[in-house]
Amino acid sequence: MFELDVRSRKPIYEQLVERLKELIITEVLTADEQLPSVRTLAQQLTINPNTIQKAYRELESQGYIYSIKGKGSFVSEATPSRNSEKIDKVRNELSKLLSEALYLGITKNELYKLIQEIEAAIGGGIEDDQNP
Amino acid sequence: MFELDVRSRKPIYEQLVERLKELIITEVLTADEQLPSVRTLAQQLTINPNTIQKAYRELESQGYIYSIKGKGSFVSEATPSRNSEKIDKVRNELSKLLSEALYLGITKNELYKLIQEIEAAIGGGIEDDQNP
DNA sequence: TAACTGTACTAGTAATCATAGTACAATTCA
DNA sequence: TGAATTGTACTATGATTACTAGTACAGTTA
Asked: CA B50 to CA B61: how far, in whole Å?
């Protein structure tokens, strides 16, 4: 379920956050589904529980999961945070990356196609009012 | 010209890379234009010359600038690298970010609009074959 | 030659990361 | 109730990386 590269320069906990976020966004993990406990997952991945906890804490602060002491950690509802601060941040990063993509020669059409594909993969849970 | 936040967790050299990349992509800095020397810029920003050098080295490895010993550092031609490896990387990051954006409720239309705006800002140097 | 340019190298400090160990509170279930 | 599980909070330690500082060298220019 998780492919970790302990030799990567990218911290393990970040890899975990990315991977879990991906599973949540693509709805492989669905709302209120229970995640493995920090100890269980740590044992499975043969890494320290503290590392798992750090990843879970990060995901919780970003609104992707919620944790209840004594019960466990669970996937949040879709579009959990609706945090405008977070949306602004994503929009900002997106601007930079799109600029770079266009600069490198990736065409607009390619970008449109990419968006379509991703939307299809997510499952179209978010309806749009009109196609361009 | 450069607004640096030395108190940010983001390294200074990364801030420099981002800012310079932005200026190059938006053609505020044009091809073959000379950049300030590592020492001059270091003095202006009251930071260590090595930090500037690190940023310049990074930009050079990404194909945005080129440096000549004894002469200086200069902006590269547009679409410099055409490095397919780099394009793949950007495409990958873009996928992740677009997924997150859609998940957070940013609509397709908004994304299309964003692409249009960015293209306009860049100056439309890269022509596209057709609008969607 | 003198003053500039980029570049390379070492060294020291600071920050981050992963781990280990312990402890505590809340929940679950036999 | 009691045992096992859950999340959470600490401290401490070793390893690695990031950043800064200083010095030196090579090429270019006037």
From this structure: 16
